[in-house]
């Protein structure tokens, strides 16, 4: 059974070099050239932020941040991205409590309400495919900020940018993806993104219960990326360019007991594991939040980028994406 939504050819509007007014729902919309365009602009946004320069690029633009699930980095970086560029945000967190959703308003009606007030909607939702449903209703661009265990395309933009900034390329890389391949939307999107470039190999390390579904393994492998499942830390190749560690998705389990049982069998990055299996040139990434993934004793290691460049790149890439989608770059 597929956890990841497969998009038939022609079912998504491709970027094809033109971001203006388009929904951002899946990595399947992007080509390698589209990614490089985002990265080039993200570098400009980084320079702007580091120089402390004010910008009015999005002056007069109002962006709705409609988040049905909790978020720190995605919500915060989108809000900061809009405001850094002179725009404003309409912040709706937990709409089941603070909006008319609590009174029984339908999802489609909620989207119609907020598109009437704004130039774009950034949506996080627990149900796979919700961003696409929203895009079918809205006349303004919808940006998928994570839909259930399906995809998280803007997280992958910042992750690929982080790798690209460090290694200067996105092809012929070897990566370790650990944690929860079954449910992690960040892993699903990252594999899609890496598959756009030649010669990439990823090793998936997880408890047995959290392996990719067989359907997803076959479908993602068919994109040209080599996917190898491993079962213990001893199998981690010592020549990986990056490690990408994700938490066990507690919210995807039907009971706390089931979650605790699986989490007890999960893997954690420790100074000892880095010393044994990592090389000096690799980088260690985590989309966060950090829940049983990386020992805080690792934070001081220069290879640990999750609290340094990785989270900052979320701001720069989202600034770039918003400017492109809103036709200001």
From TrEMBL:
Alphabetized GO MF terms: amino acid binding; aspartate carbamoyltransferase activity
Pathway terms, separated by semicolons: Pyrimidine metabolism; UMP biosynthesis via de novo pathway; (S)-dihydroorotate from bicarbonate: step 2/3
GO annotation (BP), single: amino acid metabolic process
The EC number(s) this enzyme carries: 2.1.3.2
InterPro entries for this protein: Asp/Orn_carbamoyltranf_P-bd, Asp/Orn_carbamoylTrfase, Asp/Orn_carbamoylTrfase_sf, Asp_carbamoyltransf, Asp_carbamoyltransf_Asp/Orn-bd
Short name of any one Pfam family annotated for the protein: OTCace_N
Presence of the UniProt keyword Transmembrane helix in the record: no
Domain of life of the native organism: Bacteria
Keywords per UniProt: Pyrimidine biosynthesis, Transferase
Domain (Aspartate/ornithine carbamoyltransferase Asp/Orn-binding) ranges: 176-324
Domain Aspartate/ornithine carbamoyltransferase carbamoyl-P binding positions: 22-165
PANTHER family according to UniProt: ASPARTATE CARBAMOYLTRANSFERASE, ORNITHINE CARBAMOYLTRANSFERASE, MITOCHONDRIAL
Family to which the UniProt record says this protein belongs: Belongs to the aspartate/ornithine carbamoyltransferase superfamily. ATCase family.
Function: Catalyzes the condensation of carbamoyl phosphate and aspartate to form carbamoyl aspartate and inorganic phosphate, the committed step in the de novo pyrimidine nucleotide biosynthesis pathway.
Name the record gives this protein: Aspartate carbamoyltransferase
């Amino acid at each position: 059974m597929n956890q990841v939504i497969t998009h038939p050819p022609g079912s998504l509007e491709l970027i094809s070099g033109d971001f203006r007014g388009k929904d951002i729902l899946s990595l399947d919309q992007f080509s390698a050239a589209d990614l490089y365009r985002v990265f080039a602009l993200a570098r400009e946004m980084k320079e702007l932020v580091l120089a402390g320069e004010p910008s009015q690029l999005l002056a007069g633009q109002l962006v709705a941040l409609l988040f049905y699930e909790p978020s720190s980095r995605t919500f915060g970086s989108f809000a900061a991205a809009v405001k850094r560029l002179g725009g404003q945000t309409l912040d709706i967190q937990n709409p089941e409590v603070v909006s008319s959703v609590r009174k029984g308003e339908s999802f489609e009606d909620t989207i119609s309400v907020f598109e009437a007030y704004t130039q774009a909607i950034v949506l996080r939702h627990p149900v796979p495919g919700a961003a696409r449903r929203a895009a079918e209703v809205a006349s303004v661009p919808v940006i998928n900020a994570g839909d259930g265990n399906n995809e998280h395309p803007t997280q992958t933009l910042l992750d690929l940018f982080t790798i690209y900034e460090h290694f200067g390329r996105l092809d012929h890389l070897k990566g370790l993806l650990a944690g929860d391949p079954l449910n992690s939307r960040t892993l699903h999107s990252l594999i899609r993104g890496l598959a756009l470039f030649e010669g990439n190999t990823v090793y998936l390390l997880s408890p047995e219960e959290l392996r990719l579904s067989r359907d997803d393994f076959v479908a993602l492998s068919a994109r040209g990326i080599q996917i190898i499942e491993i079962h213990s830390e001893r199998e981690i190749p010592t020549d990986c360019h990056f490690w990408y560690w994700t938490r066990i998705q507690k919210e995807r389990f039907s009971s706390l007991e089931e979650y605790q049982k699986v989490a007890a069998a999960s893997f954690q990055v420790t100074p000892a594991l880095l010393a044994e299996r990592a090389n000096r040139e690799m980088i260690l990434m985590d989309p966060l939040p950090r829940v049983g993934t990386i020992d805080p004793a690792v934070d001081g290691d220069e290879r640990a980028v999750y609290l340094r460049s990785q989270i900052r790149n979320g701001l720069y890439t989202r600034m770039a994406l918003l400017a492109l989608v809103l036709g200001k770059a």
